[in-house]
Every structure is written in C-alpha cells, then in structure tokens.
C-alpha cells in the first residue's frame, strides 16, 4: 500500500511541476557563430597568402581580389561591366525560378493528390533529374541552339524537379485527421485544398524552393558556357582561360553573395508565409 502511495505522490509531483521546455538558441547567437566562422575563413585566407603557403597563381590574396573587384566594377571585363554581368545572371536565374515555381508547384500538388499523375509524371522527372546538367546540355544546344532559350531551359530544369517533389511530399504529409475534421464540418473539395492541403504543404514547398535556388546557382556557370556574351559564369570561364585567378575569385564571391541574398529572402518569406514552422 505504501508503495502505491509513493508512486501516486511521485506522479502528482510530476503533474504539479511539469518539465520546462528547452529554450531555443537565440538567433543573435547563431548569427555570431556564423560571423565568427566567416571571419576565421577570411583570416586563414590572409595567413595562407601572406606566408606564401600557396602560389599566387592558385590563391590570390584578398587585397588582390579586392583591387580586381574594383577594376572590373569600373572598367569591366569580358565584354561587359560587373553590373551588366550580375544583371544578366540574375535575369536568367529569376526567369528560371519563375518557370520552376509556376510549373513545379501545381504539377507536384497534382502528383501528390492523384496516383495516376504520380505514376506517369514521376518517370520522366526521375530520369532527367538523375542526370547532371552537363550531360544533357549538348542535347539542348542541338534542339534550341545557342541562344537564351537553351540557357533558360537548363536552369529551369534544375529548379523544376526539387520544387515539384517538395510540393508532392507536402501533400503526402498532410495528416488525415485534419482532412477528416474539415470534411465533418462540411468543407467541399475546393475548401479542403485551400484551407488544409495547400497551407500544410507550403513549408515543404518553400524548402524545395530553397533547394532549387542552390541547384540553379550551381548550374549557372554551365548554362553560361553556351556561347554566352554576359553573365557571372561567362566572366569566370573567360578568366579561367587566361589563368586570371583573381577574377575567378571575384565571380565566385559574387555567386556566394547571390546565395546569401537568396537565403535571407527565403527566411523572410518563410516567416511571413509559415510563421508556425519549427514552433510546433
């Protein structure tokens, strides 16, 4: 009897004083860690070049890259100024992401809702998504020529698959209990889609968009190899042909800035559209 009484007292104590939830790491703390990591990388770069741990041909100093950055910004390089190259690349990326979103989201939602659509469409998507972009790049040149169409299509294909699969996964992850509850309250098919399915799938879609941005940026240099006359990737490849490593570093830094900017924009978008993400 005493054992039961002690057990009951312990349970009451746990109920009376529930465990405190773990405190989340402050965003400022994470930012400080990231800033410290970036500072350490730059410091290592400075040390490696100052003490000649690597040849300047392979690793130019930060000061040389900064001087070249200013020179390209003012005088230009490879048939265009730095601003023109940046705008050309941003234009291609923006159009490609727009195509990826406009086509990938509805197709992915349909694949998540209909097994026939999934069975038919997943095969061609799986086939091309498993290939590196450079593998089917010659085929795009044969079909579309060396103009902007082949570049845009190559980047759009890189963005389409992750967005499409993310939308499909988002639909599949919707709890059946929510659908049953909405149906019991009299919701029709359109209301189910707009109030239950789409909001529940939105976090997955945004994750897919973030992956698509990374895939598009990684394909950018390959896309601008197709007889391009402008773009950051074209500038990088032109500099590589003349072993201008400092110019290559300038292009890589610009692409890294693209990645940081797009990531910050995605975080802002997630806070606005899915403020509940990560808080449940």
What tags apply to this protein structure?
280 residues; mainly alpha; MetI-like fold; 79% helix; 0% strand; globular; disordered N terminus
What does this structure look like?
With 280 residues, the protein is mainly α. Helices cover 79% and strands 0% of the residues. The protein has a single domain (61-273), classed as MetI-like fold (Orthogonal Bundle). The protein has helices at 2-16, 27-50, 62-75, 82-113, 115-129, 133-144, 148-172, 176-184, 189-223, 232-241, 245-273.
Summarize the structure in short.
79% of the residues lie in helices and 0% in strands.
The CATH superfamily appears as MetI-like
Number of helices: 11
Oligomerization: single chain
Describe the main β-sheet briefly. none
Number of domains: 1
Order of helices and strands: HHHHHHHHHHH
CATH class: Mainly Alpha
The averaged pLDDT comes out at: 84
Class by alpha and beta content? mainly alpha
Indicate the percent of residues in helices. Answer: over 70%
Strand content: under 5%
- CATH architecture grouping: Orthogonal Bundle
Span of the ends, CA to CA: 41 Å
